[in-house]
Amino acid sequence: MTINGDPGENTSARQTKIIATLGPAVASAEAVLSLVEAGMNVARLNFSHGDHESHRRFVEWVREAAEKRGVPVAVLQDIQGPKLRVGRFPGGSVELPAGSEILLVPGDAESAPGSISIDYPFLLEDVEVGEPVLLSDGLIRLEVTDRLSDRLVAQVIEGGTLLDHKGVAFPGTQLQVPAVTEKDRVDLEFGRSLGVDYVAASFVRTAADVAEVASLVEPGTPIIAKIELAAALANLDEILLSAQGALVARGDLGVQLPLQKIPLIQQDILRRANRAGIIAITATEMLESMTDSPRPTRAEVTDVASAIMAGTDAVMLSAETAIGRYPVRAVQMMDAICREVESGLRESEGIVDIAFLESNQTFPSATAKAAVDTAANLGLKTIAAFSESGNTARLLSKYRPHARIVAFSPDPVTRNRMALMWGVTPVVAERRDSTDLMIAWAEKHLEKEGFCEAGEGVVMVAGTPPNEQASTNLMKLHVIGERRRRRHRQG
Q1: 27 in a domain, yes or no?
Q2: How many structural domains is the chain composed of?
Q3: Is 326 helix (H, G, I), strand (E, B) or coil?
Q4: Within this chain, do residues 423 and 461 fall inside the same structural domain, yes or no?
Q5: Is residue 250 among the annotated active site residues?
Q6: Do 313 and 222 contact (CB within 8 A), yes or no?
Q7: Of 56, 57, 83, 85, which residue is the catalytic one?
Q8: Which of 127, 128, 356, 397 would give a disulfide with 421, using CB separation of 3.0 to 4.6 Å?
Q9: How far is the C-alpha of 79 from the C-alpha of 490, rounded, in Å?
Q10: Do 60 and 148 reside in the same domain of the chain?
């Protein structure tokens, strides 16, 4: 990999997955295909922007590109959640000089001179004198100094230009906001019709918030909890037990909390998500400079590398691919960084050590860990997993084997979902009625696709009996071509 020139060449298989946000910069079938060819594993649809028709087209283009390239690509629906915003201003913006006084008024009407409308009906009830108010992703900071009958008085501590509909945060306030807004309900129903593979729940505070989103999606759809509020950190363990993934939303966390705390918070969330056995995602400004520049900064490259070494399953691009000037190059660069860091970790022992997953699936977890340990002890390069639901592949992934995980499933939806799992190569398999037939089919595929050669050992992992979504309970050492040799000798 290079920083000053092309992303470079590293032909090793990439284990960390790449999520790319779709938007105006890639609004064509050809552009989406280019992202898939560059290495996008998951396409993110940001429902804070765009309309249903544009999202429908993106899903169609993603499915077409995935079929054309013969690779699985998951679709992640990211709902807006209860995002609070300011209203409109005459001329589209207002200047807020430091030290000036401003009035805060509940509602979404156009703001009068000297005031800011905020679309939160309980503004006067919930916000206390002395509490901070952050505007425009925390760039502007106010402090409430007085409460009148119909408005709050605030002083501008850190000023700036405030644009229409920018976000508002109340980091010191317990707000009366729903976990799911009416817009979210409409969007989730639309997502069901599109057949999205994952749903990201925004601004969750408790496990109950995750459960509410889960009740509104297609049954079985994995929920990714976005950790972006201080309240979510306080309830992190219960949230991780209720969700199938956690996303470190560093942008909103950086508004809620002092910026200098974010690196250690990120490390902690990744560590706890991994120990919980769920997918861990790192997001926000990873290659932000590539929104306008053809190459990232050295600090951004190091940021991505640090997330990989800390155990993230996936890294996410937002503005870089949605509205940036170099969307394909951003994915290529992310791909190159991931491969380079992973190759260094493979040469060493790596730094992610998960002793035993803290989950209720004790038996499946033990089987998965035994498979990973066996592959390492015998120096085997491949673990073949048979997974109706994707659970077997996820558990293997969490133990971070040096061996590649080739995951077979008869369900195309499961195949797409496994595209987000670290180190997993998903394959749609033909359905077989017995474990022996299942292994025989997988052996042919592994040889045909060049994963294994005759005489090579493979660790096989499955839940038996097959086709019944049984828990992971089988580990088998298998030698490719051994059955053929036995039949040949017997013949």
Answers
A1: yes
A2: 3
A3: coil
A4: yes
A5: no
A6: no
A7: 85
A8: 397
A9: 61
A10: no
Point out the catalytic residue in the list 14, 226, 272, 432.
226
Token couple for 201: 């729940």
- Mapping DSSP to helix (H, G, I), strand (E, B) and coil, where does residue 203 land? coil
**In this structure, what are the phi and psi dihedrals at residue 78, rounded to the nearest 5 degrees?**
-110, 105
Per-residue pLDDT of the chain (491 residues), as tens digits, is: 544 445 555 545 899 999 999 999 999 999 999 999 999 999 999 999 999 999 999 999 999 999 999 999 999 999 999 989 999 999 999 999 999 999 999 998 899 899 999 999 999 999 999 999 999 988 999 999 999 999 999 999 999 999 998 989 998 788 898 989 999 999 999 999 999 999 999 999 999 999 999 999 999 999 999 999 999 999 999 999 999 999 999 998 998 899 999 999 999 999 999 999 999 999 999 999 999 999 999 999 999 999 999 999 999 999 999 999 999 999 999 999 999 999 988 755 544 455 555 555 578 888 999 999 999 999 999 999 998 899 999 999 999 999 999 999 999 999 999 999 999 999 998 888 888 888 889 999 999 999 999 999 999 998 888 766 778 888 999 999 877 666 656 55
Point out the catalytic residue in the list 14, 17, 21, 44. Answer: 44
Distance CA 419, CA 75 (A): 10
CA distance 329 to 416: 24
Question: Are both 246 and 298 inside the same structural domain?
Answer: yes
Q: Is 181 a catalytic residue?
A: no
44 in active site: yes
Q: How many CB atoms lie within 10 A of CB 447?
A: 15
State the pTM of this model. 0.91
Residue 355 lies in a domain: no
- Domain of 218 in residue numbering reads as 17-81+178-345
What does DSSP assign to residue 167? B
| Residue 1 within any structural domain of the chain | no
Give CA 240 to chain center in angstroms: 14
Question: Which of 51, 110, 113, 122 has the alpha carbon at shortest distance from 86?
Answer: 110
* 444 in catalytic set: no
| Same domain membership, residue 193 and residue 50 | yes
Domain boundary among 345, 378, 411: 345
Nearest CA among 429, 434, 432, 446 for reference residue 482 = 446
| Peptide bond connecting 465 to the previous residue in cis, omega within 30 degrees of 0 | yes
CA distance 428 to 430: 7
Residues 221 and 316 in one domain: yes
The candidate with the shortest Cα–Cα distance to 340, out of 310, 380, 312, 304, is 304
57 lies in a domain? yes
- Choose the catalytic residue: 21, 282, 284, 367: 284
